[in-house]
Structure formats: structure tokens, C-alpha cells
Amino acid sequence: MGTSHIVDGKGLAARLREELRSEVEQFKRATGRSIGLSTVLVGDDPASEVYVGSKRRLSQQAGIDDHHRRLPADATQEHVAGVLDELAADPAVAGILLQLPLPSHLDAKALIDRIPWEKDVDGLTTTSAGRLARNLDGLRPCTPLGVISLLEAEGVRLQGISAVVVGRSDLVGNPLSRLLLQKDATVTLAHSKTENLAEVTSRAALVIAAAGIPGLLGKQHISPGAVVIDVGIHRTATGLVGDVDFDAVSTVASKITPVPGGVGPMTIAELLRNTLRAAQLQN
After folding, report:
1. Residue 99 scores a pLDDT above 90
2. Cis before 175? omega within 30
3. Annotated catalytic residue 55
4. Alpha-carbon torsion 178, 183, 189, 192, what sign?
5. In whole angstroms, what separates CA 55 from the centre of its chain?
6. Of 144, 255, 249, whose CA–CA distance to 189 is shortest?
7. pTM, whole model, 2 decimals?
8. Which residue of the set 8, 45, 65, 99 is catalytic?
9. Which residues lie below 8 Å from residue 196, measured CB to CB, with a gap of 6+?
């Protein structure tokens, strides 16, 4: 096989944000209400600052009001909980996003669960996870939504396809498996401890790498013509890399996402779509 078609997540995300801007305008005209997103950043983790900055900038470009809250690294559990409760009660705030990771003295799960499910734009509360598991209306995690949008935009037929998701996090692997099942894919959930991983992945027509291990999947893991989506992103001395050995795998896959420029931009586009969805749910 020659070289894979490289899936352009950056271009698709830009088109989705453009569509969203007019949908936000329509919502405002129809309801007379604005849509607000509150990003909550605790401490000064440099990567988190970059992520939050980009979420805020793109949400404002889409016509979404910025209700950012910045808390010191030594903020107590009670202080952060109080801020989340205040935002939960604020009708101007449609969506709340608590940026992870939090400083180690804070209980992230307990804090996330203070966010009402209809404002949970990250789709991470226990209620949101339960609603996804039961296929009830709700907000889904942004990266899995971005993966599904990419696959659909690329014309990948999900019904009946054999898919392997490598990685079982609550942020990506678990919810993505659910979303694929709801699209009638036949899904295997594997992870870094799976024995004979290459044997499992090389039988699949769709392989999604989300284990958080640089270069985990090589050419031997992919069957010729399979579609490969790389969710991983790692900073190395030579630049950003994913969970997939891009150079090797792109010689056998039919389609592959690059790192950066693949799934990453889609995550923010889906966050903005979730914020509009949250406003619609509350309206």
C-alpha cells in the first residue's frame, strides 16, 4: 500500500466553528439569551494555561461569553466547590469546565460531580457518564465526540465495522467505546496491559489509539487499509508525537490523523458545540 490519506482535523474544526457561530447567533435571536462558558483554572500549570487560553479565545470568536475563573494553586476544596456552586446557580453560565489536572491536594472527582449534568460541557460527571451508558440525552466528552465527527466527515461507515479502542480512560477510551457502540460498530476495548495487542488491533478495520503512551502502535499493529485515529499527544525533544508511530503506520493505513492537527482541534470545536447544546438543554 502507498501512503495514507491524512485526515485534516484542523480544517474540519474550523468549518464546525464557523457553522457554530451562526447557530449561536440564531439561538440568541430566538431566545433573547446569551450563552456563557466558564472555564475554571486552579493553579498555574503551563499546559493548562495554554489549553484554557485557546478555549476562551475560540469560544469568544463563536459568540460565547467568557466567564473565566482563575483560582490560586493553594485554593482549598471548599473554595473551589463554592465557586462551582456559584457558577451552577448562575443563569448566564450555560457551561462549566473545570480544567484538569488539579493540584494534588484537591479531590477532582468530587469537584467535577458538583457540576450539574446539563452544564457539564466536558461530559465527565458521574451523571453524564450514566446518561451516556443508558443512552439518555446529555453532554458527551469532547474528544470522543471529535473522533466520531472526524470519522463521519471522512465518510467512514461505522455500522458493523470492527473497531478497537486502545485506552480505557473516563476521558476518552470508555466514552468513545460507548459512542461507537451506539453507531452500531463492533467494539473491542483494549489497553496497554492487553496481551498480544498487535493480534487484537491488526484484526480491526478501525483502530483508535488513546492509551497515553508515545509510539505504542507500530506497523505490525495495523492491517493494510485500516483507518487509524491517534488521540495521543506527547511533547518530546523532537516535537509533538502521538500514540502511533506515524511514519511507519502511514505506509499501511488507508486514513490516519496527524499529531498535531488531527483530533486536538476537534476537541475544542466539540466543547463549543457542547456549550450551545447545554444552553439548549437549559432553555
Report:
1. yes
2. no
3. yes
4. negative
5. 12
6. 144
7. 0.96
8. 99
9. none
Cell numbers at residue 206, please? 478501525
Q: Minimal CA–CA distance to 261: which of 5, 4, 12, 3? A: 12
Quick one: cell of 159? 455500522
CB 268 within 8 A of CB 62: no
For residue 33, the SS3 value is coil
* Nearest one of 128, 105, 107, 104 to 117, comparing CA atoms: 128
The three cell numbers of residue 76 are 482549598
From 28, 44, 45, 55, the catalytic residue: 55
**Is the sign of the CA dihedral 135, 140, 141, 142 positive or negative?**
positive
| Residue of 120, 122, 230, 245 marked active site | 122
Q: Is the peptide bond before 91 cis (omega within 30 degrees of 0)?
A: no
- Is residue 184 annotated as part of the catalytic site, yes or no? no
Cα dist from 239 to 28, 149, 235, whole Å: 42, 27, 6
CB 206 within 8 A of CB 185: yes
Q: What is the pLDDT of residues 1-14, one digit of tens each?
A: 568 999 999 999 99
For residues 257 and 124, give the distance between their C-alpha atoms in angstroms, rounded to a whole number.
25
